[in-house]
Amino acid sequence: MRPANIITAIADILAGVAISGYLINISLDTLSLDFILPVACLCLATIGLYGGGVVFNDVFDAELDKIERPERPIPGGVISKTQAIILGSYLFLVGILAAFSVGGLTGYSGWLAVAITISCLVYDKWGKHQQLLGPLNMGLCRGLNLLLGISIVSNALETYWWMGIIPIFYIAAVTNISRGEVHGGSIKSLKLTAWIYAAVYGTMTVLAILHNRIYTAAPFIILFAVMINLPLFKAMKNPIGPNIGKAVKGGIIALVVMNAAWVAAFATLPYALVVLLLLPISMILGKLFAVT
C-alpha cells in the first residue's frame, strides 16, 4: 500500500481544503465535529483510493515483478494475487463511499473518487506502458486527488479546477524518470524533469505573490525546491538505477512540502505547519516500507 506515499496523498487533500477557502474564519475556538468530519472523510477517501491504486499496480505487475522486483509482496509469496485483488477492491470501495459521504450523489467529491479509481486502474493496466500518456495518466491521478480536497466547497472547485493541472505535470515529471529505476535513466529525461520542476515551483511563487502571502509561502517553496533538486542533480551526474530511485523517492516525499506551500499561499502559517508535520511521518514510513 506504500504507507509513506499515502501520507502525501492526505497532504493533497489538506492542501485542497485550504485552497477551497474552507479554513477561512475557522479557529481552535470554532472547531466542531461538523467541520472536522468532512475533512476526515476525504482523508479516508484518499487513503482508500491511493492504497487501492498501488495494490492493483502490484497485481498487474505480478509476473514482471518476479524478474525485476522479486522483493515485492506478491512475487515474494507474502500475499497471493487473489488476496491482493480483494484488498485493492476493498480499498477502492472504502475510498468511493467515504467521498460520497461528502456532498452526496449531487456533490463533486464522490464522482471525483470514481474518476480517480478509473484513472488508477487505467494507469496500472495500460497507461504505465505508454511513453507519453503514461506519465500524464499518473499525474491525472494526483491532480484529481487535489481537486478532491477542493471539492469540500463545491463553488471553489468551479473556480480552482485548473489547479489540478499543476500536480499532473509535476507527477508526470516524476513518473518520467521513474522508468530508469531498474536499468538506469537518460540525461535528457532528467533534464526535462528539472525544467518541469522549475515551472512548478515558479508557478507556486507567482500564486503566492498574487495572494499576498509570498513571505509566508517562500520558506516552504524553497524547501520543496531543495528536496526535489538535490537527488535529481545527483542522478544527472550519474544516472544509474539507485540514483534514479532516490530522485523518484525525493520527488514523492517532497509532495508533503509542496502541499504545505499551497496551504501557506492560500491559508495561514499554522495550517501550513500542520501539513508540514506530515513530512517526518512520511520519511519514517519511507524507511520502513517501499516508496516505489
From TrEMBL:
<feature type="transmembrane region" description="Helical">
    <location>
        <begin position="271"/>
        <end position="290"/>
    </location>
</feature>
<keyword id="KW-0808">Transferase</keyword>
<dbReference type="Pfam" id="PF01040">
    <property type="entry name" value="UbiA"/>
</dbReference>
<feature type="transmembrane region" description="Helical">
    <location>
        <begin position="247"/>
        <end position="265"/>
    </location>
</feature>
<dbReference type="InterPro" id="IPR050475">
    <property type="entry name" value="Prenyltransferase_related"/>
</dbReference>
<feature type="transmembrane region" description="Helical">
    <location>
        <begin position="190"/>
        <end position="210"/>
    </location>
</feature>
<feature type="transmembrane region" description="Helical">
    <location>
        <begin position="216"/>
        <end position="235"/>
    </location>
</feature>
<dbReference type="GO" id="GO:0016765">
    <property type="term" value="F:transferase activity, transferring alkyl or aryl (other than methyl) groups"/>
</dbReference>
<keyword id="KW-0472">Membrane</keyword>
<dbReference type="GO" id="GO:0016020">
    <property type="term" value="C:membrane"/>
</dbReference>
<feature type="transmembrane region" description="Helical">
    <location>
        <begin position="35"/>
        <end position="56"/>
    </location>
</feature>
<dbReference type="InterPro" id="IPR044878">
    <property type="entry name" value="UbiA_sf"/>
</dbReference>
<keyword id="KW-1133">Transmembrane helix</keyword>
<dbReference type="InterPro" id="IPR000537">
    <property type="entry name" value="UbiA_prenyltransferase"/>
</dbReference>
<keyword id="KW-1003">Cell membrane</keyword>
<feature type="transmembrane region" description="Helical">
    <location>
        <begin position="6"/>
        <end position="28"/>
    </location>
</feature>
<protein>
    <submittedName>
        <fullName>Polyprenyltransferase</fullName>
    </submittedName>
</protein>
<feature type="transmembrane region" description="Helical">
    <location>
        <begin position="135"/>
        <end position="154"/>
    </location>
</feature>
<keyword id="KW-0812">Transmembrane</keyword>
<feature type="transmembrane region" description="Helical">
    <location>
        <begin position="90"/>
        <end position="123"/>
    </location>
</feature>
<feature type="transmembrane region" description="Helical">
    <location>
        <begin position="160"/>
        <end position="178"/>
    </location>
</feature>
